[in-house]
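help with these tokens:
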Amino acid sequence: MKKRTFTASALSIVSMLLASCGGAKDPAMIAGERQAKSEEILNERKQKGALIMTRFIYPGLFGPIRCLADIRLRKLVAGAPDETTPPVDLGTPARWLLPEQAKPADMKGDFLNPVPDAKDYERAFQPIAPGTYVVTHARCQMSSPNGTTTLEAGGDHGGLFSYISALAGASTITIGEGQIVDAGYFRVQGTRDHPVVVGQEASSAEREVMKEVIPGAYSSITFKKFGE
């Protein structure tokens, strides 16, 4: 009897541990985390006066592809990139919906359906000083079965042959004082010698996800695109 009791207790403990690690979170805990991350986003804009986030899309053969990317922004001064003030290096988030995707019924997401949560958005919005900026360099990395492919546009990367020049197309964006800017989708098209930036606002499905997972910050977000 003691052996059976011990075995049952052990199984119960293992079940509790598994539930705590991989089981569903308590709804109250989820709501609390979402509110906390919303407040963090609102507070973080105080660092430099505003926040910005964007998503990098590569126009693949069978549709848009997510890119982990770095986008270098420089303030516009008299119509040209400011070469004296340090640039803003904007990293893109890892999890977000592609423009044509609908809001998923299961908000947990998985590898093939990377649904952002409150933590993802809190990390994605980055402090930036108000002003008008222009893109001078963009670097995108894509993973495939054959390895990692890196694509670059612009020459403002700090290397031996670095040069500072604005990318063509919709490469500017204006950030207002106190704004939390969702800059939508950032694309680079054209050729290697003449890259052209194309901007697009965040989809309605992405906005629905944001409204659900960061409800306290959602009403303060300004949705716009590069070129505005």
